[in-house]
Structure formats: C-alpha cells, structure tokens
Amino acid sequence: MEEHSAGTKGAGGFKPVLGLAGEIDPAERWAWAAGTVFDQPEPESLMELTVIVPARNEAECLGACLESLVSQSEEIFKLGRDWELIVVDDHSTDQTVSIALSFSGVTVLAAGTLEKGWTGKNNALWTAVRRARGRWLLFTDADTLHKPGNLRRALHEAQKHKVGMLSYSPRQLTAGLVQRALMPLVFCELALAYPPARVNDPQTRIAAANGQFLLVERESYRRIGGHAAVAEKILEDVELAALAKRRRQGLRFRYAEDAVSTRMYRSAGGMIEGWSKNLALLFDNALALAAWRAIDFLLLFGLPLLTVGLWNARLMEHSLQWLGAGWILGVLWLRTLVRFFNRVAKSNFPLLDCLLSPLGLPLFAVLLYRSWFQHKILKRVSWKNRSYGV
Questions:
Q1: 334-345 pLDDT tens trace
Q2: CB neighbour class for 156 (10 Å; exposed up to 12, middle 13-18, buried from 19)
Q3: pLDDT, tens only, 347-358
Q4: What CATH number does domain 3-170+210-266 carry, 3.20.20.140, 3.60.21.10, 3.90.550.10, 1.20.1250.20?
Q5: Are 190 and 279 in contact (CB under 8 A)?
C-alpha cells in the first residue's frame, strides 16, 4: 500500500462519548472478530479526528473539496496535530493523485486490492481506516464542499447529542434542466421515506445516513464492525446507520445546508447510472412508486387538456353539463397540483427547481423501473466502470 504524507503525529487518548451504550449483546460480538480494523494494535496516541475522502477519477472536483477541508486548519484545530486528512485513491486513471498530493498536510493512500465480496468504495475506506488515528472518523465524498468551521461544529454536535454516529444530508447543487427537474423528486421521496425525526428516535427501526458526510466515533465504529461488516453493500451508509441503531450507538441525521454542499453528478449519464444503482435499495416499493409518479405526470398534464376541451364544448348540445364537468376537472387538477408541490417542497430544493420538477416525472419513473429491473431481474448494477452482483 503506497502512502504519501505531509502530516505529523498528534497526541491524545481515547474517550468514549458520554451516553453511549456500554456492553454489547454477546450475540452481536461477531463485529469484534478477527479481520476488523481493531484486531491490530491501536496507535500509541490518537488525534481528535480523521477525515477520509475516497476518490476514483475525481480530478474535476477533488481540488475544491480538499481546499474546503484544508482551510479549516487553525491554531486551535491544526491539521497534522489535532486532525488528519486522508485521500484514498481507488485506482484512478486521471489526475486525482497529483491533485491530492498538491495539498500540504494531506496523506494519500492507494486503495488495497479489490477482493471478491467488496465494493470499491468500501474497500478504499477500509484501507484508510486501518491507518486512521482519530478518535472520530469522518467519511466524506470527493464532490463535497465544507463550510468554514464545519468539522469542529460537527464534533460538537455529535457530543452534544451523545451519539456515536452523525450524518448530514448536504445541500444539493444542480446544473441543467434535467438535474434541476429530477433531483427534487428523488429527495422529497427520501425525506418522506426517512424522516429525520423518526431516524433519530431510538425507539423506531428506521435508519438512514448519507455517505457524503458520515461522522462516527472510533469506539462506535468498532462496535458496529466498520466497513468490513458491510463490505458488499451498495448503500453502505444506510447499512452502517442500521447497525449503529441496532447496537444502540446513537444516531443523528439531518439536512445540513449550513454545513456541507455537493454536486452529486456532473453528467446525465453519471446521474442515470447512479440512481439506477441506488433507487431500488432506497425504496422497497420502487415499481409501485414508478407507477404513481407516472400517474402524477398524466394528471398534472392531462387534466388541464381535458378541462380546456370540456370548456370549449360549451356551444354544443348539453353545453352546461360539459362546462360543469370541466370545472370539476379543473378543481381536481388544482388539488393534484397542491398535493404534488406540498410533497416536493419537502426536498429542500430551491423554489424554481421545485416548479420544474413535474417535467422530471417521466425520467424519475423510468429510473425507478430501471433500478428495480437491475436489482430484481438482472441482479447486477454498475458504477464507475465496475460491475457488482446484488
């Protein structure tokens, strides 16, 4: 495993966050088995935080991400002394490595050999975790942008709420008509399927996290088995959150436009491939959801045409009856419109994007079906020139 680093060793000792569960159920001690990161000696001294950025052909966005992270180094929270930043190159073929090496204080690792039963991202993260020296581990994607002071505030938030796992849903940046119309539809469904209030309630079974910003206490990461426990999972973030909740480590998840933003996809092809990989895993009822969104499209665009047609029939025989039917359809259309936009408003997207979202309904329905077909029929998905069985 190759390593390049400009960092220095930090100091400190591990302290569990107050309020975390104590002894783990013996039935779940498999998470401590040999093969995890903790079957090797702990570092002599620990830093406050390790930030880990997996990167596979991310030359287009990595520089801005690292700039937003490195700039958070200050005297009371100094990079290389109090925290470390690791970029894991997942066999990139572009300028990803040279960009990472251009930042002082950043450690660059090469991901280990991708073994059967692992996804590329999980393998890359596992490579870095085994070298991490932080009391807290932050997994964040190469396409994220972090607000000044975000790292320290996140640590404080996790400690304040006494949780072992904190995840942010970033503000989504979009470009082009297709993304602006589609993305609010996806994220409003996510908000409805995974309401933060229920995710954060330890009495419910609903769990969610966003791998674009996933902060985990070292001891909690040990107790859930780390990425080795979800090695083959496509949605490793949600799976880790489920384990954290099941093992009573404390989970907090929220929308965080005040902390981090991201542009998930930089091409239509990447967006189609990415959502085809994920949607059927995020929504158990993907096929039914596709049908309902197709019906929404027909109602939103079909009802006005029928209404106008009936109104134009006013000079024909029984014109008053047709006119009345037209008004009934018009009221039904307005009701459908209000219901639709009340739903989309939960996406936390700008007003203009929400107004454009009806245009994205056909594509959303197609992507839901495509994802269902890949997972249920083909049982195989692809991402970044790799194919995975599901």
A1: 999 999 999 999
A2: exposed
A3: 999 999 999 999
A4: 3.90.550.10
A5: no
Statement: residue 245 has pLDDT above 90: yes
Per-residue three-class SS string for the chain: CCEECCCCCCCCCCCCCCCCCCCCCHHHHHHHCECEHHHCCCCCCCEEEEEEEEECCCCCCHHHHHHHHHCCCECCECECCCEEEEEEECCCCCCHHHHHHCCCCEEEEECCCCCCCCCHHHHHHHHHHCCCCEEEEEEECCCEEECCCHHHHHHHHHHHCCCCEEEEECEECCCCHHHHHHHHHHHHHHHHHCCHHHHCCCCCCCCCCCCCEEEEEHHHHHHHCHHHHHCCCCCHHHHHHHHHHHCCCCEEEEECCCCEEECCCCCHHHHHHHHHHHHHHHCCCHHHHHHHHHHHHHHHHHHHHHHHHHHCCCCCCCHHHHHHHHHHHHHHHHHHHHHHHHHHHHHCCCHHHHHHHHHHHHHHHHHHHHHHHHHHHHCEEEECCEEEEC
Name the residue ranges covered by the structural domains of the chain. Answer: 3-170+210-266, 286-389
How high is the pLDDT of residue 390? 87
What confidence score (pLDDT) does residue 2 get?
52
The rounded mean pLDDT for the chain is: 88
Instruction: Return the percentage of the chain with pLDDT > 90, whole number.
Output: 78
- Residue type present at position 370: R
Between strands 260-262 and 171-172, the pairing is parallel
Work out the number of other CB atoms within 10 angstroms of the CB of residue 311.
Answer: 16
CA distance 121 to 235: 10
The residue assigned the tokens 């969104």 is: 293
Q: Which residue has the tokens 């450690």?
A: 107
Kindly state the tokens that stand for 131. Answer: 């070298």
